[in-house]
Amino acid sequence: MMHCPQKIILASFGAAVRPHLFAFITLILALCLPPDAAAQSVPPLVFVERRINADGNDAWPAGDLAGAGPHSRVRPAAPGRLLVRESNGTIRVLVDGNAATPPFRLIDVNAPSVSWDGARVVFAGLAAGDWPGAPRQTVGGWRLYVVDANGANLRQLTFTDVAADYSQFGAGSAPWPYDDYDPAFLPDGRIVFASTRWPAFAQFADVRASNLWVVDANGGRLHRITSERGGADRPQVDPVSGRVVFARWWRNVRLPSDAMDSLPADAAQPALGWIRHLGLSTLPADNVAAPGRGARNTWQLAGVNPDGAELTLFGGKPDSDSDGFAYGGAFAANGVYYANYYPSLDATRAAGFGGIRAYRRGATAWTAHSGVTRPDPAQRVAGTPQNADLYNGPYTTDAEPLADGRVVFARADDTSQDYGLWIAATGATPQLVYDAPGTAELRPRVLAARTAPPLAPDIYRDQPAQAPYPQFLPPAGATPLTRDGTFAFDARNVYANAAVDIDIPSAPAVGSAASIRFYADHQRTSPGSFATLDWPLLVGEAPVSPEGRVTAQAPAFLPLFEQLRGAPGARYTVPRTGAPGRNGAAHVGGMNYDRAGVVAACTGCHAGHTLMPVPDDTQAPWSNLAPGATVTASSTRAGARTDGLVDRKVFLGAIRRYWTSAAGQTTGQWVELYFPVPVVVRKVRLYAPRPGDEANASLTVTATRVSLRDDAGVELDARTTGGITMFGTDVGFLDVTARRVRVEILGGTGTFDGQAVVGLAEVEAIAKGAGIRNEPDDAIFRDAFEAP
Q: Where does the record place the region Disordered (predicted)?
C-alpha cells in the first residue's frame, strides 16, 4: 500500500482551506499508511500544532522553534491547536486556536502535561488579544488551563491576579506583565510550572528571568519555589526520586577578581553602578578564571524538591557550557532524561536547530539520540556565519520515551523548522507518526495512566502551617534581606574532591581559603540586563576552618552566590580550582538559593560539586587532597608533565597523561606530592597504568615504598607494598601530619612507547587539613572579614 503523508496531501491547498479539510485528510491518512508502519503501534499522544514564525535565528533567515528558550518560550505562534492522536491514527481536537473553544477564546497553546492517572491535561494557553510577536518579549497573556482527557471541562488554572507595587523598579515598570508556561503534574496532583511572575531581568539579552511555581489543582496555594536570576524553565518530575528537574540558566555577569578596589562606571553618576567592586568585576581582563570557567552562559539540568529545597545538578559535564547543556525534554521510566540540545547555548539568539541527548544522573557523558547534538564546523549550513550556529539537519526536539524503549520526537528536515512527529528505537530508522505542512507539531506526551513517582520531601504539602510562602516582590534594597527567613549554609569541606574518573573539576587546594563571602543578587532598580547596575550586595563573610568547613545563616528565597577568599601567602586572592592547570576559580558562576528553615549541606567548592554525595560529619574532613599538591619527580619522559598524577583520571583520561620516568630510567625513580599546608594523611592510594592504548603500554608496578615527610623532607613514617593495580591499591597510615608524600618505585617492568620506563597513573592522598590556619597578615582581609 502506498505511503502518502499528510504533508504531501495538504501542500496543494491554500492555508485558509486547510483547517476545514482536517477530518477528511485524517481519514485519507488512515487508508494510506501501511498496516505494519511503526506509527500503528504508538500509544495515544497529546501534542500541540503551532504556526512556524520567521526570525528563528538572529544571524540568518530561518524558521523559529516555538516555545524554545528565552528567544521563543512565550512568543505567540497562533493559531495553535491542542490535539490528540489516538493509537489508531485518528486525530482529536481538544483546543482549536482557529475557533472559539467555550468558555474561552484561546488562540495559541503550548506544553501539555498529562496527569499521572491519565485523566487530565494541563497546558499553557494564550487568549485572544493584542500581543507582541517578536522574539524575546514578555507577552503577558500566557496562563495555565486544564482539560479532561476526553476534551470536557476546560477550565482556567492561573490568572492575571497580581496586585503589587512595582514602583521600586522605576516609573515605567508598573505593572509588569508576566507569563505562566511549561506546566507539569506533580505526583500528588499539584502542578509545577515556569513563570516570569517574580520581577527580575535575566543577566543577558534584556529578557525576563523565570522561576518555578507550584499551584494546587484547583488554582489555590500558589507559591514560588526557586529564586533564579537567570531562568528556571521546563520542569519535569524525576520518576526515580520524585524531585523536580528543570532547565536552569547558569549565568553570572560579575566575574571573580583578585583586585579589591572599586571602579565606578561613572564617577560623576554613582547611580550607574560599578565596573569593579567587592572582589567582583565586569571586565574580562580581571577574571581570574579561564573564560570558559568564570563567564558561563548556558542552560543545564538542575533539580529541587517540590518545595524548592536541596538544589543540585542532575547530570552532564558541569564545567562545559556545551556538554552540560540541556533545555527541556522528558524522562524515561528508568530515570534517563532525553534532553533538548540547541547550538545557541544561551537560547536567546536562536531557537532550535538542535537535537536530542540522553543524560544519566551524575557527572556522566551524554549519548546522542538524534539530530544535531554537538557543534560541528564541517557541517555548518553553507554560507551561514559562525555566530548563527547553524548546522545541517535534520533537527530534532521534544522527546517522549515510551515504555517499550522507543522514543516519539519532533523532527524537521531543514532550517525552516517544519517539525512533524516521528518515532524510533535507539539506532533504528525513524518512522513518521504525524505531520501537517506549514505547522510545527511539538511537545508530544503519552495520554495514558502511568506509575506515579515517589513523593519527594515537601514542607508545603506535609507541614503547611510551618512554611510561610515567600513574598511576591524581592526586597527593594539592601534590607531587610532576611524578611522571608534564613537557611543554614553548611559546606562540609570546600576542599573535597570527587573520586577518580568522575568528570568534574578539582577543588581548591587545601589551605587556600580563609573565608567565604556571600552575595545577594536580586532585582532592585535595574531596567534591564546591565552588568554595572544592581551590583550584588555583600551579605556577609564567614571563616573557613582548616578542614574546609563553613557554616553560616543566609537569607532565604533570594538569588545568592559565593566566593572563597584568602590564599595563604597572597593578598586575599580567589583560590583557583581544577587540577592540573588551575584554570577555574572558587566563585559561583550562576546563582543558588534555598527556602527558609532548611540546612543546605554540600561538599566541595567547584563546578559540579553538588553531584557529589554529602558525607556525614565524621567523614566530611577526609578527602583526596592530592589535586592541590605540587608534584615533582626523579625524572619524566620527554615532553611529558607530572601533574597527570593528580588529575583524578585513570580510565577517563588519555594514557599519555600518566607519569612515566625518562627512557631507560627504571631504578631509583620516585614522585613526590608537596602540599601548600600541613595535612593529616590517613591513606595513600596508588593506581598502576592501564595497558595498551596509543602508547602500547605494558607497564606493571611490582613494589613501592610510600613515605610521609615534613616540610624539610625529614621522613616521618613509611610503608612498602607489593604489586599495585590499575583499580587502586591502598597504603594505610595512622593519621600522620605531614607536608610531603613520596612514592618510590621499587620494582616494575614493561615499556611505554617501546621504551623501558616505570610509571604511575594516579596518586590519591586521603587526608584533611592539619588545623593550621595560615591566614595572610593583611589589613584588607581583616577589614572584610571582621566588618563585611
A: 369-393
Is the bond into 394 cis (omega within 30 degrees of 0)? yes
pLDDT reported for residue 171 = 54
pLDDT of amino acid 38:
53
For residue range 305-325, what is the model confidence (pLDDT) as tens digits? Answer: 999 999 999 999 999 999 999
449 pLDDT more than 70: yes
CA angle 362, 409, 140 (to 5 degrees): 85
Quick one: pLDDT at residue 567?
Answer: 67
Give burial (CB, 10 Å; 0-12/13-18/19+) of 747.
middle
CATH 3.40.50.970, applies to 626-769: no
Burial class (CB in 10 A: 0-12, 13-18, 19+), 31: exposed
Cβ neighbours around 607 below 10 Å, total: 27
Q: Say if residue 35's pLDDT is above 90.
A: no
H/E run at residue 539:
strand 537-543
Task: Round to whole Å and give the CA distance between 440 and 443.
Answer: 10
pLDDT of residue 780: 35
pLDDT at 568: 61
- Is there a cis peptide before residue 103, judged by omega within 30 degrees of 0? yes
Provide the 3-class DSSP secondary structure of residue 378: helix
Please, what CATH class does the domain formed by 37-253+295-446 belong to?
Answer: mainly beta
Q: Could you tell me the CA-to-CA distances from 147 to 51, 434, 479, 647 in Å, in that order?
A: 22, 22, 44, 54
The CA distance from 227 to 471, in Å, is 12
Say if CB 659 and CB 640 are below 8 A apart. Answer: yes
Grid coordinates representing 268 are 560623576
Kindly report, as residue ranges, where domains of CATH 2.120.10.30 are found in the chain.
Answer: 37-253+295-446
Q: Using CA atoms in the order 321, 325, 327, 331, what is the torsion angle rounded to 10 degrees?
A: -160
Q: Which of 8-12, 171-175, 244-248, 526-530 is the most confident on average?
A: 244-248
Q: Which of 30-39, 421-430, 573-582, 697-706 has the lowest mean pLDDT?
A: 30-39
Three-state secondary-structure class, residue 744: strand
CA atoms within 13 A on the CB side of 427: 0
Q: Which residue has the cell 501542500?
A: 11
Answer whether 642's CB lies under 8 Å from 729's CB.
Answer: no
CATH 2.60.120.260 positions along the chain are: 626-769
The answer to whether 742 and 671 are in contact (CB under 8 A) is yes
Take residue 517 and report the three cell numbers written for it. 563571602
Quick one: DSSP state of residue 63? -
Distance, in Å, from the CA atom of 700 to the CA atom of 136, rounded to the nearest integer, reads: 59
Place of cell 520524585: 242
- Closest of 236, 62, 197 to residue 135, by C-alpha: 62
Residue 13 confidence (pLDDT): 35
pTM above 0.85, yes or no: yes
Q: What is the dihedral of CA 67, 68, 69, 71, to 10 degrees?
A: -80
